[in-house]
Amino acid sequence: MPDAVAGSACLSIAGLTKRFGGFYALNELSMEVSQGQIHALIGPNGAGKTTFFNLVTGVLSSDSGSITFNGQPLDDARPSRRTVKGIARTFQNIRLFPHLTVMETVMIGEHCRAFPSVWKALGAAILHRPFRQADDELHMRVTAIELLEFLGLADKQDAKASDLPYGEQRKLELARALATKPRLLLLDEPAAGMNPRETEELDDIITRIRDRGITIILVEHDMKLVMGISDNVTVLNFGTKIAEGPPEKIQSDPVVIEAYLGEDVQL
Predict the structure, then answer these.
(1) CA-derived radius of gyration, the chain
(2) Is the pLDDT of residue 1 over 50?
(3) In this model, does residue 133 exceed pLDDT 90?
(4) pTM of the full structure
(5) How far apart, in Å, are the Cα atoms of 164 and each of 21, 84, 95, 105?
(6) Sheet arrangement for strand 184-188
(7) By the 8 A CB rule, do 7 and 35 touch?
(8) pLDDT tens per residue, range 162-196
(9) Closest by alpha carbon to 18, among 56, 61, 58, 69?
């Protein structure tokens, strides 16, 4: 469980800017995400939400501005390093290895922390200690089973990822992300394609993830889900923050309502 103090800043964004040619995908965005909260990031298509995720995870580099995670600047741009620091994400379009089993898929997520590294093997050789790869794999399996039980997929651990129904594939992607032991979890439209029953179940899952001490940033177009589950909401439009606050404030903000005109959204 993350050791940051609840209520302190988990992620601080200051003046974050990203241009593609002459187009500002993000324009001097500043926001703060408190530890242990569900913070929603909403806006019309093209508002800059995915760009924000890509900047935080290191897929893209910013043109200016800063990102601070748990009090430390995110200077290393490599996504793998940011995963080890405790940042994980899911994707709007499910990205699974279709021929792997459910168990193998979750264990892949654990490799960033649990796999025997070259340095670990070298250290074992120098100290004349056995290279305990089997023990590491056993630990990974135990952790994977716990996550699958948490998400209601334990009975599917030997099934191929591609054989799962759509809603369960969404859960599996969540399990893989949680296997990295994140402090901050970025959810990119997790309810996309789900039916009402699955979305209601997702609401409960996200809340239980937050209750494990994991901070969540939620990008989602289902406003019923967003407004019912979020502690705080930031609204983007054409890369610029136009509003921020608790859900009840955002729902009545005329600037936010105007930004959503033409979108199939009920605030």
Answers:
(1) 19
(2) no
(3) no
(4) 0.87
(5) 41, 28, 13, 12
(6) 87-89, 184-188, 215-219, 38-42, 232-237, 240-245
(7) yes
(8) 999 999 999 999 999 999 999 999 999 999 999 99
(9) 61
